[in-house]
Inverse folding.
């Protein structure tokens, strides 16, 4: 069923997102669900103007990658780029450490909160050369039935005792200054 996610509408949505934020999304990892989707999306990406914006656009799946290198060589080469887009299938989650990655695009559903959080963790690592790094986590929103993998900050507390679970409030701000004022109020009390 994951191959249903490999469709033109969805892939174009990913390309539009990357194109409209190419200045902010410097080093990108895209998580897809199948090897065929990784290769198809890679082929689409290298045929777009994004190819001129990034030093590398590549893919890695369990047994191969677009550079035909060993996994170790591939990872080492990838870490040297300042701007790249890397499409993968469950390869670059746990254990992949490149603190310069600042963007993760979640285009694959997962029932595993741990996998999902590990994938997001690739973008939120502290970069010792850029302490002010902004991290971006982009979810591809689907209108397909039974796709439930949205980020929810309540996940952080799902495995602890209800007695210890903090109250989580959703607050919407219409202006940046409202948000800043709210934070200042919290920190001064």
């Amino acid at each position: 069923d994951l191959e249903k996610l490999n469709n033109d509408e969805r892939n174009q949505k990913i390309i539009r997102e990357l194109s409209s934020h190419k200045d902010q999304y410097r080093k990108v990892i895209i998580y897809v669900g199948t090897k065929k989707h990784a290769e198809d999306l890679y082929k689409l990406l290298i045929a777009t103007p994004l190819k001129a914006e990034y030093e590398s656009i590549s893919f890695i799946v369990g047994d191969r990658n677009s550079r035909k290198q060993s996994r170790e060589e591939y990872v080492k080469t990838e870490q040297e780029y300042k701007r790249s887009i890397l499409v993968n299938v469950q390869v670059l989650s746990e254990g992949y450490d490149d603190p310069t990655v600042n963007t993760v695009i979640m285009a694959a559903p997962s029932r595993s909160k741990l996998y999902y959080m590990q994938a997001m963790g690739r973008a939120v690592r502290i970069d010792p050369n850029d302490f002010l790094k902004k991290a971006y986590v982009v979810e591809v929103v689907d209108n397909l039935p039974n796709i439930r993998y949205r980020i929810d900050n309540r996940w952080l507390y799902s495995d602890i005792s209800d007695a210890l679970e903090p109250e989580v409030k959703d607050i919407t701000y219409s202006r940046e200054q409202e948000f800043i004022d709210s934070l200042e109020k919290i920190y001064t009390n």
Q: What stands out?
A: Strands lie at 27-31, 56-61, 64-65, 84-88, 103-106, 136-139. Confidence is low (pLDDT under 50) at residues 144-149. The first strand starts at residue 27 and ends at 31.
